[in-house]
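=== RUN LOG ===
request id: a7f3
mode: sequence -> structure
chains: 1
length: 165
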Amino acid sequence: MADLDKKDCLILGILQKNCRTSLTDIAKEINLSIDSVKKRIKKMEKKGIFYPKIQIRPRSLGFVNIVDVKIKLNNHSKKDIDSFINYLIENPRISEIFGISGEYDLSIVILSKDAKDLQNITSAIQNKFGEIINSWNESMTLIAHKFEKYDMNKLLGLDNQLREG
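=== RESULT ===
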């Protein structure tokens, strides 16, 4: 587990709200020097605690359908699965691929412009890999109420330690 302190968690919280916040503003808010903030950010980035990236909003680019698909596989070899996953990885309309536990084996997210576009994408996948797909369950994402937002002090229990200590 990563070794974070309260200051690291506060930095992460600020960056989650606005990743473009200046080092000067972060330093003022958490009462550290600019150099200390910069070193902490670089250290957390190097440890893989976060990845600096932008988050694209597909709907603003015309991809109004964001579809979560749960897939159950059957009659498959490792080679079949690798081929299927590689196909999904190479498909620009598939934005996420997760191996999951439970009733389904995979969870993918498809971006489409409309119902016809979605049908074309799903048909292409199902036609190519229909022999190993046992079940396909789609649901449309209507709105994201919370998406990858973490209160690191609470998540790591540091807020309780501060009250108790």
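=== NOTES ===
The chain is about 45% helix and 20% strand.
The radius of gyration is 21 Å.
=== END ===
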